[in-house]
């Protein structure tokens, strides 16, 4: 389909978007409440990215790329560690030493994983899959990512899935993952 991007382009765009948020975070003092809002925004973007990879990319990677199952397993483990880090960050108060340490760790770890994906995983995926398959994966990724708003404080709190993001209970990471995982199975 003309004008549609493939999975690699979609995921690379995610990387650039998250890096833009990271630069905004780095430009703010850790005590600034806006810094906390940006870390929440980065959390949403990252979880959207992770779910897209786990639901659509890793299964194909495991089936079609030599050592793809190992790459997918490592990606899942990285996601698990990063999600725990984001949960810890959710609980940290802006302006504290803990918050600053967790922000620094998140930025460093996500940047490391981004480099690994772009240098190792994406080229192998591109070599293993024909363009129509990559485009189909890109379309699926776009649909799942469109389900959750990019900010945890949307203006329309009564509209699903926004209302699901605002309900009390599990933290932001788990709420975003629950919304996305439930919707991704519909595709």
Features:
75% helix, mainly alpha, 187 residues
Explain how this protein is built.
By secondary structure, this protein is mostly helical. 75% of the residues lie in helices and 0% in strands. Helix 1 packs across helix 5, helix 2 packs antiparallel against helix 3 and helix 3 (68-91) runs antiparallel to helix 4 (97-128). Residues 153-169 have low confidence and may be disordered.
Helix content: over 70%
The termini sit apart by 18 Å
Give a quick account of the main beta sheet: strands, pairing sense, barrel closure.
none
Average predicted confidence as pLDDT: 83
Please outline the helices and strands:
Elements lengths: L6 H20 L6 H32 L3 H24 L5 H32 L2 H15 L16 H5 L5 H13 L3
Helix pairs in contact: 1-2, 1-4, 1-5, 2-3, 2-5, 2-7, 3-4
Concise description?
The protein is 75% helix and 0% strand. The protein contains seven helices and no strands.
């Amino acid at each position: 389909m003309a004008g549609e991007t493939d999975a690699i382009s979609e995921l690379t765009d995610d990387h650039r978007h998250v890096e833009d948020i990271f630069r905004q975070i780095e430009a703010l003092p850790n005590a600034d409440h806006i810094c906390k809002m940006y870390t929440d925004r980065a959390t949403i973007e990252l979880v959207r990215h992770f779910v897209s990879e786990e639901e659509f990319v890793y299964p194909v990677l495991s089936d079609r790329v030599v050592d793809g199952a190992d790459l997918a397993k490592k990606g899942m483990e990285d996601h698990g560690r990063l999600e725990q880090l984001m949960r810890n960050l959710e609980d940290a108060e802006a302006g504290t030493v803990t918050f600053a340490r967790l922000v620094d760790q998140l930025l460093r770890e996500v940047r490391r994983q981004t480099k690994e994906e772009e240098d190792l995983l994406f080229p192998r995926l591109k070599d293993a899959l024909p363009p129509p398959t990559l485009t189909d994966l890109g379309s699926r990724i776009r649909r799942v990512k469109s389900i959750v708003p990019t900010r945890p404080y949307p203006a329309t709190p009564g509209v699903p899935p926004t209302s699901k993001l605002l309900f009390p209970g599990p933290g932001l990471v788990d709420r975003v993952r629950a919304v996305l995982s439930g919707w991704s199975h519909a595709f």
